[in-house]
Amino acid sequence: MSRCECQVAIVGAGPAGLATAIRLRQLGVDDVLLIDREASAGGIPRHCGHSPFGMREFYRPLSGPAYVRRLARQATSLGVTLSLNTTVVEIAEGGRLTLSTPSGEQRLHARRVVLCTGNRETPRSARLVSGARPQGILTTGALQSMVYLKQRLPFRRPLVVGSELVSFSALLTCRHAGIRPVAMVEANERVTAFAWASLLPRLLGIPLLLNSSIASIAGKRRVESVEIEEASGQTRRIDCDGVLFTGRFVSESSLVRASHLQLDRRSGGPVVDQYGRCTDPHYYACGNLLHPVDTAGWCWSEGRRLAARLQADLNGALPAAGRVIEIDATSDAIRYFTPQRIVLPQHAGEIEPCEAAADLQLRFNGRCRGRLCLSGDQGTLTSRKLSARAETRQLLRLPMTRVADNQLLSLEWLPDQ
């Protein structure tokens, strides 16, 4: 068993991890190690063969593979060490990691560790869809991996379940591969993504079935048909040769769940403060591990901001953990929010770095209209009136100058009557 050390170890080489590594090297941080279990860097965009990626990073539309190749080349040219085909099997206190590598087990000690393991779609098993277990049932990630990386077609006429942004990405993948979905099914009265996205299935000649859900799957060796249940209770059968489950992303937090780090029950990711620090200050978290699911560009921007905080930490300029103010949400309408805690400096008057998170980021469970309030011991600190849809990012400004006077912060949702 070999042992090694580094300044910063980043777990996950998707857009957030690549951006953090690149910015750290640009800021002069030496010995940055980027770890990924796959054979190539890039995360999910590696198998998204459509555009647009890279508008905010490179100011031009790129396909997913072209986008992450540019990021990976930039990282290696700056001296980031890439450790691919390497799985982190355990994280322990103080930045100690156990790795499984092609040459065997390895122990790594890093001054700081950044967790960028991303998210994953909810498969059929977790959606409790009954019926047979034939071949041809996939998630978007599995489909895109097969089409773009392995040049294989898992089906010809699938049913697409869901209407998030990734669902329309799946339609573009199907179009690229010559696959013609028989229908797109959404349980709600409107698509989850932006309203204009509903134009895509119509342009492609794919029926969009709203207020409908998949009840069961039939087939022996392969999928043969599905039973669709409408909101009225009526059912009908649709013949198809596959089922594509899209969206309902959850944090890829298996490492955190098995570790000493505190887990947030709402997001499924680790609890972090306004700097992105976990409950063990040797660990940070970034990207879709914290907020499933955001675009590659958003995660890239977040990684760059986190790198500045990490540099301040390594140089001793980040305030050490002092008094902790927890944030609690009182409404079940709020799906999750991040950060979940505010850590104040140990010494009064200590200057906060400008790179601390200035906003709460949150999502709602469904469509709602009302007022979002952040309250403390002395009443409301800040509020915002908004109309929100499921799976759309919302931001609420953190009034840091007023936070310090409180013991507990409460995030409240007051719906319109």
Give an account of the 3D structure.
With 417 residues, this protein is of the alpha/beta class. The protein folds into three domains: 1-121 and 249-318, 3-Layer(bba) Sandwich (FAD/NAD(P)-binding domain); 124-245, FAD/NAD(P)-binding domain, CATH 3.50.50.60; 320-417, no CATH class. It contains ten helices and 26 strands. The strands form six sheets. Strands 1, 2, 3, 4, 5, 6 and 18 form a seven-stranded mixed β-sheet that branches. Strands 9-16-10-11-12 form a five-stranded parallel β-sheet. Strands 21-19-26-23-24 form a five-stranded mixed β-sheet, with no helix packed on it. Strand 10, helix 6 (165-177) and strand 11 (183-185) form a beta-alpha-beta unit. Helix 1 packs parallel to helix 3, helix 1 (15-26) packs parallel to helix 9 (296-314) and helix 5 packs parallel to helix 6.
Give the tags.
single chain, 417 residues, FAD/NAD(P)-binding domain, 3 domains, five-stranded parallel β-sheet, globular
| Cα-atom radius of gyration | 22 Å
Low-confidence stretches: none
CATH homologous superfamily classification of the largest domain? FAD/NAD(P)-binding domain
β-strand percent reads: 25-35%
CATH topology of the largest domain: FAD/NAD(P)-binding domain
Global mean pLDDT = 92
Query: Could you give the count of β-strands?
Result: 26
CATH architecture of the largest domain: 3-Layer(bba) Sandwich
Instruction: Report the top-level CATH class of the largest domain.
Output: Alpha Beta
